[in-house]
Fold this sequence. Notes:
CATH architecture: 3-Layer(aba) Sandwich
Distance between the termini: 24 Å
CATH superfamily: Glutaredoxin
Number of domains: 1
Shape: globular
Radius of gyration: 15 Å
Amino acid sequence: xxxxxxxxxxxxxxxxTTLANYAGKVLLIxxxxxxxxxxxxxxxxxxxxxxxxxxxxxxxxxxxxDFGAQEPGSNQEIATFCERNFGVSFPxxxxxxxxxxxxxxxxxxxxxxxxxxxxxxxxxxxxxxxFAASHGLPAPNELPELMWNFExxxxxxxGQVKGRFGSDIAPEDPRLxxxxxAELGK
Length: 186
């Protein structure tokens, strides 16, 4: 598996970069979408970033249009939406594919490192299956693939993936907050 810090990515404004810029930080990497039922999680993600950034947490948003075409906008439209509606100040990156044959190498590495996720049972899968069926969409993905938007990968200061949290785990969920605080304390 590739070191995630060396994988080529681009900022939302199109500048080439890598996660090496965040060496020694705790990262929360999230696939985001502007037209999703989980889109209000931007508010919680921004609150986490504001609360913990001085201790070394960086939230990283990766827009993706993989699930229900819920991120149709351009990178500029996404950036404007996030800033205007949620005051997002954490780093955002260009829209990528996070599942399937065209999956970005970053997400291939993340899902390989954390093939299981913390979630709240089968309710989300059941709800998504119903939503997908009623909208003529494919059924939710099986592990290790991402199931939907707003899955969260926690990466420690050492650059290793420490956890994966499903879309149904909100940014303020005590399980996620405890995991972040534990990594910040290392």
